[in-house]
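Hi all, long-time lurker, first post. I run a small reading group and we've been trying to get comfortable going from sequence to structure in the token notation. Rather than ask abstract questions, I figured I'd post a concrete chain and ask someone more experienced to write out its structure so we can walk through it together at our next meeting. Sequence below, copied exactly:
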Amino acid sequence: MRSIVECVPNFSEGRERRTVEEIAAAIESVAGVLVLDVHIDSDHHRSVITFVGDRENVGEAAVRAAGEAAERIDMTRHTGEHPRVGAIDVVPFVPVRGVSLGECANIAREAGREIARRFGIPVYFYGAAALRPERVQLETVRRGGYELLKQFGLSDPSRMPDAGEPRLHPTAGAAIVGARPLLVAFNVNLDCPDRSVAVRIARAIRASSGGLPGVKALGLLLASRKAGEQEGQAQVSMNLTDLTQTSLAQAYRAVEQEAAKHGVAIDSSEIVGLVPQQALEGVRPDEIKLSGFSPQKILENRLAAVSGLAEFEPQGKKTEITG
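-- Answer (accepted) --
Happy to help. Here is the structure in token form:
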């Protein structure tokens, strides 16, 4: 493989495993592309699939994933804790080896235009692929979610898509496609069922509120879990976008300190998808109460595990779904 591009699309489906499996299969139908990890979450009603390919084929795999998601996911019936705008909500392309962020931005724009052309899904570009400065930040593009787009339509200049017609797909909604560096999706689960506590903690620690640099955070409620004997568990859901500024351990301690102000303890933490090796430098999993973790959650380990597959050709092997 001459280059390695990671793609980590998020889909608005976390309850029908068969749907997620079919989307993963559509991704691996492209020669030279391999799915490394699949994470499914019923409370978020969201799945995250991590796959790799080279600059020539990774975009086509994302396009096929969008088409499969559009066929199988109906946003008019979708509810879940996580913000989203469509069946395939966000599609980031990430440089790993032999490719630049700028090249990933070009891949993203080409894939986004193809998604719009083939399936009639309007597409917004974000991150390094953004065509408008106000759309660099994902949370800005996604603000208000699917419901706001459906209510007000896309004809207003502030909501016009970057690719495709200014109208939502009847069932698949819209999509946000872009390019970014590696990040870590890190959730901390509280020993408390009060979502408002998680919201206040998220507000205190995220960069946009003057908190930790490189941290994005939301406060959510996991209805299917328990905090002690109480139904529901509050969660602080984070993206750590720059580990040189804020590490896993620092993010965990910040949540722990803020939670203590509310008389709340930490129950556990979890990583969504894969993490670069550097994310775990200087910290043991037990120190941050990391659950469901194994060495196969490290990106470099997964790449090494498949390095013997010639040109990453599909091998008919199913990827384990976690969550």
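A couple of things your group might point at:
Residues 309-319 have pLDDT under 50 and may be disordered.
Residues 101-119 form the longest helix (19 residues).
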